[in-house]
Amino acid sequence: MISIQNLSVEFSAKSLFDGINYVINKRDRIALVGKNGAGKSTMLKIIAGVQKPTSGSVAVPQDVTIGYLPQHMTLTDTNTVIDEVRKAFGHIQQLHEQYDRLSAELAERTDYESDAYARLIDRMTTLSEQISMEEGDGGEAEMEKTLIGLGFVRSDFNRPTSEFSGGWRMRIELAKILLQRPDVLLLDEPTNHLDIESIQWLENFLVTKAGAVVLVSHDRAFIDNVTNRTIEISLGKIYDYAVNYSKYVVLHQERIEQQRRAYENQQKQIQDTEEFIERFRYKATKAVQVQSRMKQLAKIERIEVDEVDTSRLNLRFPPAPRSGDYPVIADGVGKAYGDHQVFDGATFTIKRGEKVAFVGKNGEGKSTLVKCIMGEIPFTGHLKLGHNVKIGYFAQNQAQLLDGEITVFDTIDRVAVGDIRTKIRDILGAFMFGGEASDKKVKVLSGGEKTRLAMIRLLLEPVNLLILDEPTNHLDMSTKDILKQAIKDFDGTVIVVSHDREFLDGLVEKVYEFGGGKMRECLGGIYEFLEKKKLDSLAELERNKPSTPDKPAQDTRNTTAPQKPATQQDAPAQRQGRVNYTEQRERQRMVKRAEKKVAEAEASIADIEARIAEVEARIAAGEVDADIFERHAALGKQLDNAMSLWELAGIELDELKQSLGID
Hints:
This protein is α/β, with parallel strands linked by helices. It has 5 domains: 124 residues, Rossmann fold (3-Layer(aba) Sandwich), CATH 3.40.50.300; 105 residues, no CATH class; 50 residues; 198 residues, Rossmann fold (3-Layer(aba) Sandwich), CATH 3.40.50; 87 residues. The chain contains 20 helices and 18 strands. The strands form 4 sheets. The protein has a 6-stranded mixed sheet, with helices on both faces. Helix 5 runs antiparallel to helix 6, helix 9 runs antiparallel to helix 10 and helix 17 packs antiparallel against helix 19. The relative contact order is 0.07. About 6% of the residues have low confidence. Keywords: ATP-binding, Coiled coil, Nucleotide-binding, Repeat, Transferase. GO terms for molecular function: ATP binding; ATP hydrolysis activity; transferase activity. This is Probable ATP-binding protein YbiT. It comes from Muribaculum intestinale. Belongs to the ABC transporter superfamily. ABCF family. YbiT subfamily.
């Protein structure tokens, strides 16, 4: 459908792409991956026609439409939300003209059995359906469905777009692009401003309704669920894999290992050749051989390995000063701005060492509650911080607090203490500040670079309560993995505000959901929370079922008596049975998962108790080494944490069984 041919791009005599070739097919859903700065966003701009390549071409058929959502855009509209989105249908006349042109072409053709003729018929059918939908009432329904899917509520539809933040206005632009139903969607970090529910809705839309998709995203779960092809950009070349991201990671690692072995073999060959030349350079009897080796050396095409090995980088927070048992206790906390009540009645307790997530739609109060905990804004109710709580806070505006006159390296060097100072270069490299970038002054960094630098700075400060507000927005996947492991190893308390499911998975053991002006607690990880929401909707379905058997549908055209919705009246018994069976299986799976969690917690406790008994036996026998008491204390702490997890798992199991009516 779209052909990229011999594409090359240079910036200041530096090559970004070098002779790239590939084709975007009709149902391809492609993830563009690579390091920050590899050229992913530039590639999207070139395909969209926003930027011209240095050489080569992008061949787009005349009847193929492209929708492009850049990562950043300047928005100046002054309409209401619904009027702005209605602009998506402003191209109906163009659709009519395109349909008429294809119709005239069809009338002249006689190759009825050819693939080209079939494609023409298919294109005309699609255009006809699109025109029919956009000219009828279906267009309004699609607009409403799309806006609600992206997180808006009906009361937002007639509000001026100027009242919304940049993130929400990006959602409006995304809605317009999706409603246009282009043949090819180009999306640059579309999830940056979306909450988990909106991301899931967008995933479903792209999989079920979109044509070809090319996207750039650092949300691993999102691209894994959407894409079926991965194109890696590395050192000006591309590596094309006909698999989704998870499978690509395995194949990529195999390629890197092969590349590294080839690089090492080549380096040995170069070294041997150089040693031979140096040894016999001035011997007349070896002159011919020396000249031959020199020519051979000049012809070698040097292998490059575009991979910084961060697998051994064990980034750890400094030991957390001990806080009280309950770092955060809230009782009936609420916050309103004028007549708008953001949330109310938030009552919860976070224990020392817990790692929890704040999730929910944007604007429901996650960051607002964080500001309440930080003491930055007034609130109603009671909120108490525990004894000796030292907060480390990361938010987008943290970047503005950095000293612009010092270098990247000095920014980190001034807060690093102990052995970590010997690893500053490695840490900077892992967060994409390797080489000369570490000597840049902070004031010349981009917003994303400053955000990453603020994150590194926070990692090195001795705190015991970490509050991270969307920490992964400007991090690539390998850097997110390093940060996630560091947080998992952190022995303090953590609150994470995030919509990145993959980042939260295995990191948090409790989820607080914000929505409808309330805050609800869910014990378990992020995927347990998402599954529980599905279960709740099934339970809601069960509660809404009629208590008496369904009656046959009746003709209601000549009566105004209230009737049940037709979908309930007409549902056959077999369908009800399937719903009941599906619900029952889902409930059984939830209970088994909860029981497994309890069993795993009990096994962990038994293991730690056995290790404590072994250490205590050694102490009693006088077999004392330098760090045996530290090990004993660490095991004691692990046992406390394991007991807490066991208690939480038991409570979750009991609550689940109670909600399902299981003894």
